[in-house]
Amino acid sequence: MYYRIRNLREDKDLSQEQLAKLLNVSQTTYSRYETGHIDIPSQSLIKLAQYYSTSVDYLLNLTDIKVRYGKNK
């Protein structure tokens, strides 16, 4: 379900543990976010979007536009 957060993480050669620390969750919880076993809280989605300089809509697969609104490509 949240394959884009996995793809973005892998593109930056980051571990699940590194992103889990950013979000103040365990690696297991973060792994469950990526697999869609649990929903990502909105504040965590916002933090991930800011970290990756993208939009929450992109993370949620609501748009294919990777660049955050108001940002130049």
TrEMBL record:
**Alphabetized UniProt keyword annotations:** DNA-binding
PROSITE patterns found in the cross-reference section: HTH_CROC1 (PS50943)
Q: Which CDD domains match?
A: HTH_XRE
Among InterPro entries, the record links this protein to: Cro/C1-type_HTH, Lambda_DNA-bd_dom_sf
GO terms, molecular function: DNA binding
Q: Does the keyword DNA-binding apply?
A: yes
What Gene3D superfamilies does the annotation carry? Answer: lambda repressor-like DNA-binding domains
Q: Which segments constitute the HTH cro/C1-type domain? A: 5-59
Name of the protein described by the UniProt record: Helix-turn-helix transcriptional regulator
Species source reads Listeria innocua
